[in-house]
Write a structure and sequence with these properties.
Radius of gyration: 35 Å
Number of strands: 7
Helix content: 55-70%
Order of helices and strands: HHHHHHHEHHEEHEEHHEE
Largest sheet: 5 strands, mixed
Number of domains: 3
Amino acid sequence: MKSSVKKLIEFLEQNLSHFLQHWKNHMYIANHDKYIGYVEHNGLAVFQLVKTAMGRRLCIDEIQQLAYKIAKERAEANINIGDFVYNTNLGRSLVIKYSLQSGLPIEELQPLIDDINYLFDHFSFYAVTKYTELKEAELQEKNLLITQSHKDRLTLLGQMSSSFVHEFRNPLTSIMGFIQLLKFEHPDLKYLDIIEHELEQLKFRISQFLHASRKDILESEKETFFLYELFEEIIEFLYPSFVDGDAEVSTAIDKNIRVFAYKDQLRQVFINILLNSIEAVKEKPKPRRIHICASVSGNFTHIHISNNGPAIPPEIVKTIFEPFFTTKKLGTGIGLYVCKKIIEKHGGHITCTSNEQATSFSISLPLEKKRIV
């Protein structure tokens, strides 16, 4: 056996220059590869392993050391791993091709070819595994950088929007006060109700920006209230919007459900979802339906707000609660993001599902006994 190994190694060494030339002529190598000068050196290192493998079974560390070195170079050169695999298997094929030309009997050659295949199989496995590991680490580092950069921009935007919105809020409060005076002094004056409603909507949008730009909101204290009564107030407030969208609204709310929460914040959540629902059903012919239901199950109150508007594509549903994501031409992309933050602040969660029959926003809030102060 030793003599067969010696003969085969001598034959391969005699043809090494032809072997390397053939390999370099047919391999995939990019001109911009920063390690292009290492190619022949790496090929010779693999050839040395081949010679060692025919004399004895290599230990894993010997294969890994070279495989990891070359994988690191391939990753740093940003080369497609497919090219590396092709070049490795090309080298394997050439080694076996020249081995078959050595003149050794097949019964002596077969065990040696098995050793060569063992080496190349393990070498490819460790190199590809290491390459994948390095690329995943690189991707995670880039994602971390992007995420941090995104957070920094959100923080800056929040600071700017908070200051900017406060400048609007003060004169708006004065205008709304004067509207109340006009309604008192001139109760029959036309359009005051419409103006007041639009100003309330503007105030609501301003509050959204404040919610998005502040971590803690101290505008009110938590209180216990009936969920049914809150929705009655909201539906009355949004009545002009329901009429404008020609939308039918129905409810199925357990009148005994009591909620311990920041009432103004939950009002904002429900108004936002209902306004989005009105916009959605406008895109479909009649009947345009919006349904609100609420019930208790386990330790949670479950609220579902559904509409029969167009289905939301799955890829949009996945990102619908992300900040500044919007499909509306004039949308801010903060409404549902704020809704999510408010619900989570209350110890609950919110989800969205959508199909051809309905789009539903489902909210779960802890029962009153699970108060979160």
